[in-house]
Write a structure and sequence with these properties.
Length: 298
């Protein structure tokens, strides 16, 4: 039995899976805001609660950011209170066992590669389109973290083939400007619509407005889709994965999939692109399930 923990900015979720991926137990609590010791306690309490029901298991953790190879502490987390903390060691001490911790996007991709929308693929690139833009690479059901532990971080590359009005691009929390994340995140889509229409709408509301014929919403989604195609074409040019899986809140916008393969083919360096681009099977559960799968069967 394996336990997965998804350490998010607003909630911490725990799941227990059997060897076949069936859910044995599940819990969710709000993430303590800005209180690192309370986060450790919340994770510990979730594991204790799960194990009362299922028995002791291995523990994998999906976390924003990654453990720095140089310093041994969390880096690059948009949950900035985790940066600089030895999260893996502190959780191991709190839980009195070895744990495995990886970036949440890696866990998302692993979940979809093991028993999700890309279970039939060898090389899988998982994309998270949400408050931020992340990515994870899985080869033969093993997450690839890379020499510097930043494999898959396509969201902090510059937007490919930028138009004149896309330069230099919005500032990014990473300190640069024009990152893919600043164009493809949920807040970026909301900003695009606000600048065009003068109205504040959530990404979900923008998609609904577009389906009702709102010209500004249609134009925003068209531009978003083109930018997404450019970003994914860059990924295909480097990795040429067998399948790309989209997750995060924006992956639920059905309009994104209508012309995406055709658009990607216009930009990718090939005379024909047939890479499937699909929606995640496990949805919001992929991160926590992937954390559990950090401990493989057997």
């Amino acid at each position: 039995m394996r336990i997965g923990i998804d350490l998010g900015g607003t909630k911490i979720e725990a799941i227990a899976l059997d060897d076949h991926g069936a859910t044995l137990a599940r819990r969710r609590v709000p993430t303590p805001c800005g209180d690192y010791p309370a986060i450790l306690d919340a994770v510990g309490d979730l594991v204790t609660s799960i194990e009362r029901e299922t028995g002791r298991g291995s523990v994998g953790v999906a976390s924003p950011g990654a453990i720095s190879k140089k310093t041994g502490v969390i880096k690059n987390s948009n949950s900035t209170g985790l940066n600089g903390k030895p999260l893996d060691r502190d959780l191991a001490q709190r839980l009195s066992r070895e744990i495995r911790l990886q970036n949440d996007a890696n866990c998302f991709a692993l979940s979809e590669a093991v028993d999700g929308a890309a279970a039939d693929a060898s090389v899988v690139f998982g994309v998270i389109l949400g408050t931020g833009v992340g990515g994870g690479l899985v080869v033969d059901r093993a997450a690839i973290i890379g020499r510097n532990r930043i494999a898959g971080e396509w969201g902090h590359n510059p937007l490919p083939w930028p138009r004149g009005d896309e330069r230099p691009g919005p500032p990014c929390y990473c300190g640069k400007a024009g990152c893919i994340e600043t164009f493809l995140s949920g807040p970026a889509l909301a900003r695009e619509y606000r600048d065009r229409s003068g109205t504040e709408l959530t990404p979900e509301a923008i998609a609904l407005a577009a389906s009702s014929g709102d010209a500004d919403a249609v134009a925003c989604l068209e531009r978003y889709q083109d930018r997404l195609a450019r970003g994914l074409a860059g990924v295909i040019n480097v990795l040429d994965p067998d399948k790309i899986v989209l997750g995060g809140g924006l992956s639920n916008i059905a309009q994104l999939y209508q012309q995406l393969p055709v658009r990607v083919a216009r930009y990718a360096f090939s005379d024909g692109i047939d890479t499937p681009i699909v929606r995640a099977r496990h949805g919001d559960s992929s991160g926590v399930r992937g954390a559990a799968w950090l401990w493989p069967v057997g």
